[in-house]
Amino acid sequence: MRKTTTQIWLAIIATGLICNAAQAQTYGVQPSPAYHQAQPTYFMPAPSARPAVETDDDYADEEGIYWFWGQKWPGLSLGPKFGTTGIGADLTFGINQYLNLRGGFNYGAFTWKTKLGSTKYDMDVDMVTAPILLDIHPLGGHFHLTAGLYIQPDVAADIKATPTSNKQIGEHTYPPEVIGTLRGEVEAKNAVAPYLGIGFGNTVGEDQLLTLHLDIGVIFQSYDASLTADGEGMTAKLDTFREDLKKEESNIQHDLNKLGIFPVVTLGIAWHF
Length: 273
Fold this sequence. Notes:
With about 270 residues, the chain is of the alpha+beta class.
């Protein structure tokens, strides 16, 4: 009986083990819920773009001609101009972005009326000048200061007046027939005169092809004057008229000395090459 009971219990335990094994095969082993939790994702930031830094090698690759000290030569420009010095042309030689050397040629012919001494004259002016100038661009832009010289191989004016009524000549008043026609000549005293001015326009500037340029300045000038007449007073027995004519010439010279500057205003255009 005892043996039979033991066999029954062994059969029950074996049956339970078999059932558990079958259930495990049916459902499988489930992993821990923590395994399915979302894991953090990490991203590497993209490298930031750095601005390009210009080096000497970058400039060395630019086309152009360079001075022996390393600066790029700005080049040359040439073009016409006109103004109070007449018509002409300028050739500009660039040194660097701050300095230009400029030379040129001008010819002018003008006629106007002006009062000299006690008489109003018709003045015919002929001017031949050749400027040699240094343009200083203090900010490296278009504004410039200019200093230099005007070579003046021929700067002169003829003056003429024919009074039609009594006119004071020197210290006395004379009728028209005694005076006749007054003729004179005014010449620049110095063959070379200094110039100072300001202006706008850098004709050899970077990336400039055609450039308008303006100059405003003065030539520091002095003059010599002479005066003659062809009326009856020149052949009179008394020297009164001739002496007064010399005094009138001195009066003209005095007025010219007060005009110690000749105004210069020119406008031009230049081609950069």
